[in-house]
Amino acid sequence: MRQGLWRAALPVLALGVLAGCATTAPRSVSAPRPRPSATASVHPPGRLLYHVLLGDIAGQQGHLGQAAKAFGRAAQETGDPGLTRHSALLSLYARRYAQARQLTKLWLAQAPQSVSARAALADADLGLTRIAAAEREFAQALTQAAVQEGPEGRAFTFEHIATLLLRHRRAVLTVTVMRALTRLYPKDPIGEYALAELARHSHERTAALRAVNAALALKPHWEGAAVLKARILWTITPRRALAFSARFLQRNPSATRLRLDYARRLVSLQYWHRALTQFQMIAAAAPNDPRVLYAAGLIALRSHEFALARSYLKRSLVLAPNDAHANLYLGEIAETQKRYARAHYYYARVGKPYRFTAMMRDGLMLLAQSAPHLAWARLARITARTPAQAVALALARNEVLMALGQYAQGLAIVNAAMDHAPDPDVLLYARALDEEKLGAVAQAEQDLKRLVAAHPQSATALNALGYTYIDNGQHERRGLALARRALALAPGNPDILDSVGWGYYREGHPKTAVGYLQKAFDLSHDPTIAAHLGAALWGSGQHARALRLWRGALTKAPGNSALKAELAKHRAL
């Protein structure tokens, strides 16, 4: 089944909020970017003052190389420990490794027990491709840290070294250096974790997985390592990442960071009900965090758990009264439940930056009330202030014209919008639907092919072309293959499940079709999906069940043409 027009083109507003729910990441130590400023213990006269001022000005203008050179001269002339350290770090950030090596050696002479100075010298050696020297200095820094602060100091230094290595462009080389260091401390989980992180950034997935497994073997309940392993597995096989996360959470139910990471991945695959279970647990652990409550509400909405969604969203509004998101989605819930006056109330309360979206929904809501002319009038009062809003408004107006059967006028609006749209591909889907209604099936197919070519990993685009092939009775096998590709990208999407099921039905496999269509109907209760499911049930010999389904769905959607067609086909109206 195809998805709605303008809504399918707009991004899900919650994605940023879901990302914002992340709790504190594992400690990753790095020296703060040095701010070019004088730190000498005595006021530098004459030429020295010139170097310091020059460094300050160059740094403020973003010229780190010039700033490093100026501060380096000042440090060498004064021998001041503060200036030496500052200029050494600035030289490293500017990638002036030869100068950085001179300054870090001076810094180390002034502070021979400084672990930071020793690590900085190793960083400079690595930048000059002095690999053996870099490994030796890093190893000595780890030893010094362990002597001074014990295992915790060494762990801290391992993280610091990993941060330094991540700055270097030759990723394979940095993995080699870290691997050599971990061999010196084979029982240190932090070292293995650091190696796994570096290998992941170097796209060495097998090495990364091996290292993080070693870290977890040494420290089985370490949540930070579990999060890293899930991320590595996700790049190999998403299902393995989900299975690992579920197992770890079963053993470690308080691992909130991993639970949030797991929930977001379920959302990305549109496994709404499974994601909702995780967000309910997260919300129970953070009952006063409006971001978590809002996210839980949105996932509940996508799972069609409307009472639960409304509860979460209302609680988030109490904690964050000016949140435009919550009112927007409370309006959507009321609209879905056909409580149109209540929906209008919530949409009217939505402020910036989502006021435009609320006005659009308020206008399109009139279509569900069989008032397309009023919907057109309400949309006519909306002014688009950005190119993206102009595209959304064109899609909405086209949707109203399609409801009125004015496909040629809708096509004209879409074509006019394409001339000025920043991304015309967004409008191809709508144009294809208009063309199909006007009998220009070949043109519609070409537009959808263009959409897939531009967005080959878009589940919506793949499903649109696949469903077109299936529903038109041409290239059904090709259409089913496209729908299955879309399903792999969004396994929990009911529209795509419907397309796959309908494809199997049209290919002559009604029993296989029933499984997909039943799952799609359970997720959305859409009347067109009910029509398709009934057809598959009838084809499987389950005539009484098909009739009950069609008649029940028709009482809730009396105007649905697909339901009427199936009932008429079987003379059961």
Which helices and strands appear, and what pairs or packs with what?
Layout: H1 5-9, H2 15-20, H3 46-60, H4 64-78, H5 81-93, H6 97-110, H7 115-127, H8 131-166, H9 171-184, H10 189-201, H11 205-218, H12 223-236, H13 238-251, H14 256-268, H15 272-285, H16 290-302, H17 306-319, H18 324-336, H19 340-348, H20 355-368, H21 372-380, H22 387-403, H23 407-418, H24 428-437, H25 441-454, H26 459-471, H27 476-489, H28 494-506, H29 510-524, H30 527-539, H31 543-556, H32 561-569
Helix pairs in contact: 3-4, 4-5, 5-6, 5-7, 6-7, 7-8, 8-9, 8-10, 9-10, 10-11, 11-12, 12-13, 12-14, 13-14, 14-15, 15-16, 16-17, 16-18, 17-18, 18-19, 18-20, 19-20, 20-21, 20-22, 21-22, 22-23, 23-24, 24-25, 25-26, 26-27, 26-28, 27-28, 28-29, 28-30, 29-30, 30-31, 30-32, 31-32
